[in-house]
Input
Amino acid sequence: DSNNSECMNINLPKLNINKYAGNYAGWLDFYNLFESCIHNNVKLSKVDKFNYLKSYLCGNALACINGFAISDENYDKALDLLKDRFGNKNMLINAHLSDLLNLSPVKNPNDVISLRNLYDSAETQIRSLESLGVKGDTYTSLLTPILMKLIPSEFVLQFNRSQNDKEFDLSALLMFLNSEIRSRERSLQINNHKPSPSYFLPPQERLKNKNYGFVKRNTTGMPLKKENTFSMIS
Output
């Protein structure tokens, strides 16, 4: 895949580092993996690390350091420049908040896949904010009503009933939403694995049902044979 570059470490399995184009929300994932796999690798020279770094960048991120010649000294300068531009804490916080505010609504309560994607996306952004030191109580009053507008109306009604007169709470809404989605996922799984009628037959009858065609009867009670099958009439 042209969008991936492989990084190998001695006695470790291959790791893939996705190319980084300058998306603020993706900076920490990229840098943490690059730091672990390349930057902290004592077997690599700084020139090698710089070459690896450039190979993992594209778009705005690559343009940011493209003017540097490959050298030991410039590797440190280039890395510091990237961290200063894309690792700025305030920019990262704004990026995650923006992603939360731009989540796509899901209004069909039976669209389990889209509901799960919505929940996972919201949870990911919230945990990313927590990792940046942003406490939930600083944005819960803002995000709770916004998230409620993204989910099916019957979910909103059920959640409000469960909360009575309590104040809006983001963690309570996420717990409720996750519980509803899990219930629907379990129901969907059960419906998709409903046993066939032959499952309830004795083993010998199930074997007959598997290897032979059964005789169908019409309204007169006379047997009608299936095409290209053997009929078994006792």
User: Anything to note?
Assistant: The chain has a mean pLDDT of 82. The CA atoms of residues 34 and 40 lie 9 Å apart. DSSP finds ten helices and four strands in the chain.
